[in-house]
Design brief:
76% of the residues lie in helices and 0% in strands. It is an all-alpha fold. The protein folds into 2 domains: 201 residues, MFS general substrate transporter like domains (Growth Hormone, Chain: A), CATH 1.20.1250.20; 210 residues, Up-down Bundle (Growth Hormone, Chain: A).
Amino acid sequence: MKLLTDITPLRATPAFRRLWIGSTLSQVGGSMTTFAVTLQVYETTGSTAAVGAIGVASLIPMLAIALPGGSLADIMDRRMLVLAMTAGQAAVSALLFVQALLVAGRGHGTGWIWVVYVLVAASSGLSAVSEPARRAIIPGLVPADQLKAALALNRVGFQAMLIAGPALAGVLTAAVGLKGCYLADTVSFAGALYGVARLPALPPAGTGARFQPRAHLRQIASGLSFIGRTPALAGAFLTDVSATFFALPLSLFPAINAVRFGGDPAILGLFTTSIGVGGMVSAVLSGPITRTSRQGLGMLVSASVWGLAFAVFALSHALWLTLAALAVAGAADTFTVVFRGIIVQSVTPDDLRGRVNAADYVVGAGGGQLGSLESGALGSLTTPVVSAVSGGLLTIATTALIAVTLPAFRRWRVPAHDGPAARPETEQDAGATPVEVMPQDAVPDDALPG
């Protein structure tokens, strides 16, 4: 049983269990909205460029808001912040449902498409504040020895969303139209709101601080400075950015499918499904990775496997090998994300968690958007195959470069005992001023609701 993900946090901590269930339901609903928005924009405009603009509408507010929002999570009650942002996201989903009803009533929607972009941007901005704060909550809910298992369970929920969300959206769209996806997403926020509302109060570490613009900018700068002088964080973020920027050829999938498999839409759907299935298998069987202490080395290896898998995908002419390569990429992605999450939560003191998790959110979400843009642009200048192969090989090369230039990251370990303040193996490896970290189990079991 040690091969399977440890579900102890779900059994032992009611607050984490409610937060996890609510977040997973909301993620599935959010995936249905992503499906609906993409299809609505394409059916309305018939333009792939207009579909690509959805990513721009999402990326810009995320980059602008995430870091300031992360700083807010370090100076105010995180529970109240997440609750307010989640309520805002539910309102945006409700507005998407309303616009879908109005568009259906008019029989066309070209003149309304700007409303969709505005609502996508608003949702992205709210998520950029909510998600880092939500991640920063978890170490305060579970004991230190269950933190890695809790992070692995978060990945299980994410993979469930990748598989269930698009499938449910397709069925619901066929039955009642796109408005059904928007309505389902709106309803799914009830679980997220309940999970957050039942959390204990989560005031900031120390005495907190009032919001002051100049002080806020200094707080953001101090968070970035902490990342820069901490090899474990710098290495983790650089490794993830290099992997997603060079080797995330989602924009190439339709072109490669057209060349290799005649453009069969069923096969195109299998591309994304294979990544999700591979990620789910590795998430469920993540027991061993949550028990290893070599998180830095593990992340470097996983990122290299990710790059190699996409290179194989680009060169394969056999369907079974193509899908297998994508499944391996999905599995490697799960390992990379779990390793990165463990590093971020283990090395970051509580009074910096909001800011560091905000940077982590930007790396994870923004890197994918830029990677899809990069691979598509290179594919148009050369060929889709050249773009995918070169991206995979460049990922392996940059990962090797990071391993050589940041030996402290390569050798970094998280201690097996409780106490999250992970330390490099030697003082020479540290490269940063040691930081005292408050115990993760600061919230006693009897203080948790339920």
